[in-house]
Amino acid sequence: MARKTTIVQQLINSRSTIKPFKCSNVSKKYSLPLTVGSKKTITSDSHFFTLKPNSRQSMKKLSVLTAAALMLLVSCSKSVSDKQQEEENTVEATTRRCASYEVLQAKLKEDPSLQKRMDEIEAFTARYVAQKSVNGKLEADGITMTIPVYVNVLYSNAAENISDAQIQSQIDVLNEDYAGSNGDVNKTSTYQTVKAGNTNIRFTLAGIIRKSTTITSWGTNDAMKKSSQGGIDPTNPTTSLNMWSCNLGSGLLGYAQFPGGSTATDGVVILYSAFGSRAKVPSGTFTSTYDLGRTATHEVGHWLNLRHIWGDRRCGDDFVGDTPAHDGANYGCPAAGAKSACSGKPLEMNMNYMDYTADACMYMFTAGQETRMRATFAAGGPRASLR
Ligand SMILES: [Zn+2]
Questions:
Q1: How far apart are CA 120 and CA 62, in angstroms?
Q2: Range(s) of the domain holding residue 157
Q3: For a Cys staple, 238 with which of 163, 317, 345, 385, CB 3.0–4.6 Å?
Q4: pLDDT (tens digit, 9 = 90+) per residue, 190-201?
Q5: How many folded domains does the chain comprise?
Q6: What is the pLDDT of residues 113-131, one digit of tens each?
Q7: Are 240 and 148 in contact (CB under 8 A)?
Q8: Residue 263 in domain
């Protein structure tokens, strides 16, 4: 059942000692209602942003990047009581929550030049996709991209200091999911014809950097990526993928930086207990439901320029031609045959990694998503420096 108030909101309401939010250290938080295995309505309250349904769109439109920013409540870890902070730290990730889009909106507001860079990347990607449709295979298609991965572990207790084996299991999951060799890829034949198969994108563990910290909840303001703020600076960000494992707080599972952002903050952040696969390392530290490593599969998808499959708005655009319009995110493990309320009521692709379903119920990218990711590596593309 959808709850009209959020976990964090309830925590706020339950405390009488909370100071008013007021800070310059901007940390964006957002929240979604708890719904398992069904559609949800994204709700709002006075403190959190909302994705209000726009007028129905019969087609995906190339307007997301220029749409007015959806703003959210500014909160600040320094302005809440320690008690509340402790409670936020212990909020379980009971529903998938990825802050990539919200963090992007914050960065677009902070840096007006980012929009221009992202528009240029979008135009480049559109040309790449159009060229592929004419010529079939493109130069970048045949190359196996092997991406060195640095994993930055920030821990305030033993559980957060995840093992080398748990970290390796995440690399293994990424390799399986991006090769289309994941064991559940044929769980259903739904959308079989558009499954990506092997994207020729691979990952190899280049190093693990560990740091003990007294910070127990990192939020989404990139502090974990900055040694000046107690975090760990990225290693070789123009030629590598950096991942941070830490506690984000507020039940957040992770967030990614899209192509076009600053190299100083490039990479993906994953909740420590959603990092890796319980199926591969049963002795690891894992939350329930998001314990098969698919949070990283999803976040690395963002890092390679994929959007949420619903386009972050009702029946919005994910810039991919072979994904159906979704009227919103799906959660849990939706029943087979669930249909979108968007024009034409298409069968939803809730098994796509870029939806919000449970780890066990997402198992595919599409060919169109593969092309979009591959475009980032092409000559002139935003991640060509990884070649
Ligand atoms: Zn996401």
A1: 13
A2: 109-386
A3: 385
A4: 999 999 999 999
A5: 1
A6: 999 999 999 999 999 999 8
A7: yes
A8: yes
Residue 58 Cα to ligand 1 midpoint, Å, equals: 23
287 touches 273 (CB < 8 A) = yes
In this structure, what CATH number is given to the domain that contains residue 256?
3.40.390.10
Ligand 1 centroid distance, CA of 135 (Å): 31
Amino acid type, 323: T
Residue written as tokens 């190299």?
263
Q: Are 220 and 129 in contact (CB under 8 A)?
A: no
Domain membership flag for residue 207: yes
> Strands 27-28 and 74-75, how do they pair?
antiparallel
Instruction: Tell me if 70 is assigned to some domain.
Output: no
pLDDT of residue 85 exceeding 70? no
Ligand 1 center–CA 353 separation, angstroms: 9
Say if 89 falls within a structural domain.
no
Q: Catalytic: 370?
A: no
Only one residue has tokens 């031609």, namely 321
Q: Tell me which residue of 38, 40, 45 sits closest to 7, measured CA to CA.
A: 45
Q: Which of 176, 299, 348, 370 is catalytic?
A: 299
pLDDT of residue 89: 53
Percentage above 70 pLDDT, the chain:
74
Q: Which residue has the higher pLDDT, 155 or 38?
A: 155
